[in-house]
Input
Amino acid sequence: MQRTSFARMHCSLARGLDVIGDGWTLLILRDLFLGLERFDDLVANLGISRNLLTRRLTLLLDNGIIERVAYARRPLRHAYSLSPAGADLVPAILALTAWGERWARPAEGSPMIFVHETCGQPFEASVCCSACGRTIEAGAVRVLPGPGGAAKPGTMVLARRLLQRANPDNEKNTEGEGTA
Output
């Protein structure tokens, strides 16, 4: 079955998911972060089919999320690693892993423990406010319209609602231009 493309949606999350929003893709990125860099190692670790892995690696290469370097010429073999854009996804992968630890941990216990190299302590990833450093929780977030927002696919209703929240006295402007 072909996935629906979100590339034309007017939403940063949707467009990001268009590149990395597949379970296999996130697991491939996790394994690259953990040091598995060879195709056969990824196949063996994930139990993924070779043709599916090839498609996912091609998508990640084409979008600049990973890099590829030849390590053998005969036969031609490549090693894969995270690009700077891929490395920027590691905190999100760690946050998703922390959610899995809380809500879907295997009965046997945690499969991995992450240690922060800077302080040497085990940690559970969390999303923190870049201004005050406090942990972000769903009930403590307010969303305002952004400068690039508009009522377009992916934010059609949200853009209008965000504009109304930001300007409750201005009911006339409901087209959502300049919002979300």
Q: What stands out?
A: Residues 92-127 form one domain. The radius of gyration is 20 Å.
